[in-house]
Amino acid sequence: MPILKEHLVLDDPERGVFRVHRSAFTSQEIFDLEREYIFGQCWLYLGHESEIPSPGDYVRRWIGGRPLFMVRDEDGQVRVFYNTCTHRGALVCRRDKGNAKVFQCFYHAWTFDTKGRLVGVPKEERFGPGFAKEELGLRSPRVGTYRGFVFVNFSTNPPPLEAYLAGAKEVLDLVADQAEEGMIVLEGSHRYAIRANWKLMVENSVDSYHVVPTHQTYLEYLEYVKSLRGEGGKHSSAKQMVRHEVGLVLGNGHAAFEYDAKPVGGRPVAEYHPLLGGEEVRQEIEEVKARLFARLGGERGLRIARRARNILLFPNAIIVDSRAVVLRTVEPISPDITAITQWELVPREELGTNRLKGRMAAYLSFFGPGGLATPDDVEAVESCQAGFAAGEVEYNDLSLGYAKEDSGVTELPMRVFWRQWYALIQGKPAPTSWEDPVAAR
Asked: Can you spell out the DSSP letters for 204-244?
């Protein structure tokens, strides 16, 4: 059982107080429980179907402490396999991506096709009569897809993926419906490691409270860009950065915060970046918005074009649906080491356009590992991890906005995450909703 299990999360709706014990970020025992009860039981985001468009295309991933690879087989079906040879265990897929008709283990040359079948065994005649190739194909976890997003589950009897996603399907639809020809992941990724617990990065990803104090450099950059356009700098206040924010409770630990996007010519369908293009690009954006409204209706089209959102897919996948649409996975390595991988998701029809250049400029200036914001976030969460060594302070406080029904900056998405986390590491049934108790009355 988890240490201090009755005190790990203090949730007091009467006083509007929510606190998390700092051992949740430092304990090896709790980390092991997370491996078993969270990463061993929940649906985990693996990749996007667009990453493997053709038969034989594959990508290699490390998910929930397990090596996997995703491949499109000869019939066009997306398959996922544990990346381990059924002979002696070596990695079968040894490159991050590529195209192959077969996968051959470098150790003893056992060979598997794109359906995972064992099709070649050197010296097969020297095995005994009980040797059966049909029983030694590559093994697969449970696999599910929704709107092109591919998930895996390592448990024996998981819930259906769509039931697990619950209300998160609605916000995933908002992401997918931006595109007229489908959303695709751009070539390449950003990968980096941080010296902090994985849950700190999850919190950071759905935390708007830190933006103004932490990302001053980026805010000054926005002021500078506006000055180049002769508009004057007005981005430095919290009201300019995040307006009409609301926390979304999506069920099963999924959560988001949604807010008005900055009015710079339409987003995220075809974001105008002030350093690229001009009136010609603005006109393109207006045309895209008109088609969007015609296709989805004015209300839904306006929510896509004028609202942005940071989405948490419990436990460790983040989608930042803003000027750039960022896919981020947060992979625990140890209690104080985390691996981050990011991809950029874009409408297929934007390939080769100035609108795509604008998206990429927005992505790199803010979200890239060398951008104006990500290094701030890394420094912040690593600083928190270092501060936990001061053991005399036992709890983190996540009470901002607790029991408040009005829109505004809130730590609700983090409370949603922690309530689900706390239930699962105790081996309790997954709750169906984790709204703030007072606000839900």
From this structure: HHT--TTHHHH-HHHHHHHHHHHHHTTS-----SHHHHSEE
CB–CB of 20/7 below 8 Å?
A: no
Class of domain 167-425: alpha beta
Minimal CA–CA distance to 411: which of 12, 117, 121, 17?
A: 17
Helix (H) or strand (E) holding 357: helix 354-366
Does this chain's domain 44-157 share its CATH topology with 167-425?
A: no
Q: Nearest to residue 53, comparing CAs of 37, 71, 67, 29? A: 71
| Separation CA 423–CA 428 (nearest Å) | 5
Under DSSP, the state recorded for 159 is P
Distance CA 225, CA 220 (A): 9
Closest residue by Cα to residue 278 from 234, 229, 323, 222: 229
Along the 441 residues of the chain, how does pLDDT read in single tens digits? Answer: 445 566 899 999 999 999 999 999 999 999 999 999 999 999 999 999 999 999 999 999 999 999 999 999 999 999 999 999 999 999 999 999 999 999 999 999 999 999 999 999 999 999 999 999 999 999 999 999 999 999 999 999 999 999 999 999 999 999 999 999 999 999 999 999 999 999 999 999 999 888 888 888 887 877 777 677 666 544 444 444 445 788 899 999 999 999 887 543 334 433 444 444 456 667 777 888 889 999 999 899 989 988 899 999 999 999 999 888 999 999 999 999 999 999 999 999 999 887 888 788 888 888 887 888 899 999 999 999 999 999 899 999 999 999 876 668 899 999 999 999 999 998 876 555 556 665 554
pTM of the model: 0.91
- What ranges do the domains of the chain cover? 44-157, 167-425
How many helices (H) and strands (E) would you count in the chain? 12, 21
CATH topology of domain 44-157: Rieske Iron-sulfur Protein (2.102.10)
